[in-house]
Recover the amino acids of this structure.
């Protein structure tokens, strides 16, 4: 899906940040294409994650992903 795309360093950083939240919540072996797509869309937006602990941020991304499903 994302193989031939040119990504900026900032986009990669934001994308990996979201995916790391899903990995913490569900485990790296349970990351789905749907999560990857959501992560790309969020990373490519101007949205910012909330301040706080990683747990707060993890639940923010999980709740936002479920809301967008």
């Amino acid at each position: 899906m994302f193989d031939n795309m040119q990504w900026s360093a900032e986009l990669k950083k934001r994308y990996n940040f979201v995916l790391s939240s899903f990995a913490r919540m569900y485990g790296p072996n349970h990351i789905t294409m749907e999560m990857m797509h959501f992560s790309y869309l969020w990373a490519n937006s101007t949205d910012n994650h909330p301040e706080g602990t990683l747990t707060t941020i993890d639940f923010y991304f999980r709740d936002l992903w479920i809301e967008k499903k």
